[in-house]
Amino acid sequence: MFNRTEQAGPVRTKGMASMQRSTIAGLVVAACLVTGAASETRKEFRFTVGPKANIVVDNEYGAITVKPGSSNQVLVVAIVHSDKVEVDSSHEGDRLEFESHLLKGADSQTGRVDYEVTAPANVPLNLTSGSGPISVERMQSDLTLGGADAEVDVRNVSHCHVHVKTMRGKITLSDVRDGHIEISSISGEVHLKSVTGPHVQVDSGTGNVFYDGNFGSSGSYTFTTHTGDIEAVVASDASADFSARSMQGSVKSEVQLKPKEHSRFPTELGRSFFGTVGKAASEVVLKSISGTIRLKQR
Predict the structure, then answer these.
(1) What is the mean pLDDT of residues 77-81?
(2) Which residue of 75, 236, 246, 273 pairs with 118 in a disulfide if CB–CB is 3.0 to 4.6 A?
(3) Distance from CA of residue 7 to its chain's centroid?
(4) d(CA 258, CA 269)
(5) How many whole angstroms separate alpha carbon 226 and alpha carbon 43?
(6) CB atoms < 10 A from the CB of 97, how many?
């Protein structure tokens, strides 16, 4: 029995050592988690504004989200992810400006700041993010949005000017009513769903353009690409005058169009089509150099 006890002793010692090592490792992991959490800080900025206020946010890395709030209050919450970036804010007259200031050694992770903005629905916004995303909803003001890789999402806005410009970021607009819209992207896809207004213009290089809606009742819609495809899904109650041409690509219409006596482009089989549906209340022009253009019936 004594020998068994001698053998058992070292086993208990190894077990205790293993537990100690596990405990130390657990403390190290916990310390890392606490350190990581401590490096993330929340900053709040509150302002009372007048009817001519406007907001500018310039962010290199991170999200910008905007929602409507009370009629004269602006709340900006900035989630700063490390001590490698600072938030510079200024309030000059009616202009509120917020900028992410990157410090030495900052990268896409340590330089990240996420902005959450609550503002009156009629306050103009100028939002820029290098990597995005940018999200705006339920506003009724001028929106100027953009960035290199930022994905831009605008939804449920009305009676506003929407200007969006990206290099590679995807652009999505949905439920936009009575808007004056100008969109430009080098290679980002553009998706428009239930978007209407007196002026809707989309220019894309290699990115595809998708539209799903009825083209409103009296607007001008122009979609242009270089090599990107254009696809428009037309609602059954649409009333529009269509002109489509791809100089080196192909075109196809699944919508029954009423022929026009005069067309915008020279008629070329497989490269262009022209015609109207309903009372032709809106004008729709689809142009591409080498992309494919498709007109579909919903």
Answers:
(1) 97
(2) 75
(3) 67
(4) 16
(5) 44
(6) 15
216: pLDDT confidence band, cut at 50, 70 and 90? confident
Main-chain dihedrals φ then ψ at residue 292, nearest 5 degrees: -95, 135
Q: In this structure, are residues 226 and 269 in contact, taking their beta carbons and an 8 Å threshold?
A: no
Q: For residue 66, give both structure tokens.
A: 């905007």
User: CB of 254 within 8 A of CB of 296?
Assistant: yes
DSSP helix/strand/coil, 270: coil
Question: What strand order describes the sheet that includes 125-129?
Answer: 85-92, 95-102, 54-59, 125-129, 143-147, 161-166, 180-185, 199-204, 220-225, 282-288, 240-246, 272-277
Q: 276 near 258, Cβ under 8 Å?
A: yes
8 Å CB contact between 155 and 137: yes
What is the CA 95 to chain-centroid distance, rounded? 23
The helix (H) or strand (E) run that includes residue 9 is helix 2-39
Contact 259, 275 (CB under 8 A): yes
| 279 pLDDT above the threshold of 60 | yes
Q: How far apart are CA 10 and CA 76, in angstroms?
A: 61
Amino acid (one-letter) located at 136: V
d(CA 286, CA 200): 12
Show Cβ contacts of residue 44 under 8 Å, excluding neighbours closer than 6 positions. 75, 76, 77, 78
Lowest-confidence pick of 18-32, 90-104, 152-166, 257-271: 18-32
